[in-house]
Specification:
Blueprint lengths: L3 E4 L9 H19 L6 H19 L5 H16 L5 H16 L15 H11 L2 E7 L2 H10 L11 E4 L4 H8 L7 E5 L2 H10 L3 E4 L20 E3 L6 H4 L5
Amino acid sequence: MNKTFICDLDDTLIFNQAKYSYAQVNFVKWALDSFGPRTPNAQKILQLQIAKDMKAVGTSAFSADRFPQSFADTYLELAREMGITEEEIIERKSKEAFAIGAQVHDPATWKKELIPGADEVLTQLKLRGDELYLVTTGDPAVQEKKIEFYEIGRYFQPGRIHIVPHKKDSKIEEICLGRDRRNIWFVGNSKRSDIKPALEARIGAIHIPQDTWAYEEHVLDELDTTRLTTLKDIRDLIPQYDSLK
């Protein structure tokens, strides 16, 4: 019996979180240069930026501006704390802070490679005759650029690539319609965005852990994990294929 695999994109098929980490490091360095020796310690700067980014998910979800705006907002709060009042400086520096965060969406900064093993696994699943779907969250313009840049479309038939603004639940249910849920699996790295909605939809979930941002951390204790499989590497999916239940 052929299977249906619904795949996440970011940090499942392509590396993504590292871009954001580089941006955060660059922002801390920039803040040190901007504020000088009175700059708060790096830990405080990052904690403040992460808190603002997490809070903004509630209003901005995964919009392209959310992450860079957290840099600008962090600068503005630090500037107030340090008594900077010159409007021209504040406006210019907040734009600079935003630009540092916005670099994560610039293909010129991306490295064109999939997560090791992703190409082989997707190719083998296609050759087996399995159905492959991509369901990814994020700003449509940004996700479309990633899909084009990494040539993700070569693995999925037309109409089987879906970008959703925040949650994947309804799209998973849509794919499940008319199919035997016992033969459907979601492959992803995020417990919150991938594994939780898969288990709630009563389909299989293949968790391939990959470091990600704080928002994606989630505890699955309240869910039935009977159909949860955890793999260290996406390449382990093929040897485990026949044992998936």
